[in-house]
């Protein structure tokens, strides 16, 4: 028989991405999606108008150079435009940087459980993942991560706050990592939830960029800015690293609508901060409520909380998710490990608190 086209061996090894489910409509009950860390608010003021205007040019390719977006980022952060690279979500930037920096078999050190796109993207790049278990508190085990850096390590990924467990790194911690790894190792600081961080000694990513030439910051418009559907994020780094990210990017990947909406979102900073603050307050209310009912919840610095439910059979996570579904909220179970629940509308958060109190009483 004639040979058939075969993908590279790494393709068969790519783990599936499990998206957060969307609730099924339930007559007489409002349902809430708390499974994808989305923003419950509609687009910021001025954003829909900007997107609509951009949509009038649907017949034209977008500005491939993302000129206006880079200019706005440059103004905002005081870095030259050449130090930014935009892409279709920061997930795309993770793919791009692994593609640009890893040869087959090169190693990528990352925490685990962490963002599920990491093993997917590094496997697609034929790189080798070196997952380092998070601590029982859901924190990166930084000493172990630094110790895991070897001759073949090209990239070290830091996810702060860590999705799905919640804790964030301090600036001191990140600087210690940077001092502890060789300067040819690319250290990625994935700050998808940076706007929600409220802690002492928070990471100052742009100060890190001034002090280290092997750092990449990843930011997204999907979470705090509420543009998950438009697919736009950016990296900030050195001119060389940003240039490598741009070189491997999909031509015209970021649509004109996404570029316009991202700029309008950056300009709506006051409204953004107000909404983020409201979500942070809700997060505090949820954390207090859960802890009052007896749950041990790790520090939550993103727009989500983590229920640590280790169980080889995966039963506790399944039970939790099914009970949530009944209560009209869809959560994100990680079978056998835990459940992540996004902070949503106050009514959705109330339902979570109710449910968690009932579940705690019935299982303890
Ligand atoms: C959501 C998320 C991203 C980025 O998502 P995009 O929508 O692709 O920008 C990146 N990192 C982490 C840890 C996330 O949770």
Keywords:
single chain, 364 residues, alpha/beta, Aspartate Aminotransferase, domain 1, Aspartate Aminotransferase, domain 2, 2 domains, seven-stranded mixed β-sheet, three-stranded antiparallel β-sheet, 13 helices, binds pyridoxal-5'-phosphate
What does this structure look like?
The protein is an alpha/beta fold. It folds into two domains: 19-37 and 270-363, Aspartate Aminotransferase, domain 1 (Alpha-Beta Complex); 45-268, Type I PLP-dependent aspartate aminotransferase-like (Major domain) (Aspartate Aminotransferase, domain 2). The protein has 13 helices and twelve strands. Strand 3, helix 5 and strand 4 (128-133) form a beta-alpha-beta unit. It is globular. The structure holds pyridoxal-5'-phosphate. Pyridoxal-5'-phosphate binds at residues 37, 89-91, 115, 159, 163, 190, 192, 220, 222-223, 228, 233.
CATH superfamily of the largest domain: Type I PLP-dependent aspartate aminotransferase-like (Major domain)
Show unreliable segments: none
| Structural class designation | alpha/beta
Overall number of strands: 12
Roughly what percent helix? 25-40%
The end-to-end span amounts to 61 Å
The total count of helices amounts to: 13
Summarize the structure.
The protein has 364 residues and is an alpha/beta fold.
Task: Tell me the layout of helices and strands.
Layout: H1 9-12, E1 32-33, H2 47-55, H3 67-77, E2 84-87, H4 90-101, E3 107-112, H5 117-124, E4 128-133, H6 142-147, E5 153-159, H7 171-180, E6 186-190, H8 205-211, E7 215-220, E8 233-236, H9 239-247, H10 256-267, H11 269-292, E9 304-308, H12 315-326, E10 329-330, E11 332-334, E12 338-342, H13 346-363
Parallel strand pairs: 1-10, 3-4, 3-5, 5-6, 6-7
Antiparallel strand pairs: 2-8, 7-8, 9-12, 11-12
Bound molecules: pyridoxal-5'-phosphate (PLP).
């Amino acid at each position: 028989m004639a040979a058939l086209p075969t993908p590279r061996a790494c393709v068969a090894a790519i783990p599936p991405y499990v998206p957060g489910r969307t609730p099924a409509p339930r007559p007489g009950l409002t349902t809430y999606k708390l499974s994808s860390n989305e923003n419950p608010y509609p687009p910021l003021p001025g954003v829909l108008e900007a997107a609509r205007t951009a949509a009038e040019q649907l017949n034209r390719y977008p500005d491939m150079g993302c000129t206006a977006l880079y200019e706005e980022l440059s103004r905002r952060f005081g870095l030259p435009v050449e130090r930014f690279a935009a892409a279709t979500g920061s997930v795309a930037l993770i793919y791009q940087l692994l593609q640009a920096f890893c040869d087959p078999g090169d190693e990528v050190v990352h925490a685990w459980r962490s963002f599920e796109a990491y093993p997917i993207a590094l496997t697609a790049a034929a790189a080798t993942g070196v997952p380092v278990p998070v601590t029982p508190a859901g924190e990166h085990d930084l000493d172990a991560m630094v110790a895991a850096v070897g001759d073949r390590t090209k990239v070290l990924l830091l996810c702060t706050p860590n999705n799905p467990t919640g804790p964030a790194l301090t600036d001191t911690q990140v600087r210690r990592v940077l001092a502890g790894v060789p300067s040819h190792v690319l250290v990625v600081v994935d700050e998808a939830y940076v706007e929600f961080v409220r802690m002492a000694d928070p990471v100052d990513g742009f100060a890190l960029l001034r002090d280290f030439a092997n750092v990449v910051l990843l930011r997204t418009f999907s979470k705090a800015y509420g543009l998950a559907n438009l697919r736009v994020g950016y990296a900030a780094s050195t001119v060389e690293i940003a240039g490598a990210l741009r070189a491997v990017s999909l031509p015209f990947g970021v649509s004109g609508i996404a570029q316009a909406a991202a700029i309008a979102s950056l300009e709506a900073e006051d409204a953004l901060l107000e909404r983020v603050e409201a979500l942070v307050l809700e997060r505090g209310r949820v954390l207090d409520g859960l802890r009052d009912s007896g749950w041990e919840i790790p520090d939550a610095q993103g727009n989500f909380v983590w229920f640590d439910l280790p169980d080889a059979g995966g039963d506790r996570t399944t039970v939790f998710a099914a009970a949530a579904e009944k209560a009209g909220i869809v959560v994100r179970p990680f079978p056998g490990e835990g459940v992540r629940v996004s902070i949503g509308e106050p009514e959705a958060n109330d339902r979570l608190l109710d449910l968690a109190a009932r579940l705690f009483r019935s299982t303890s």
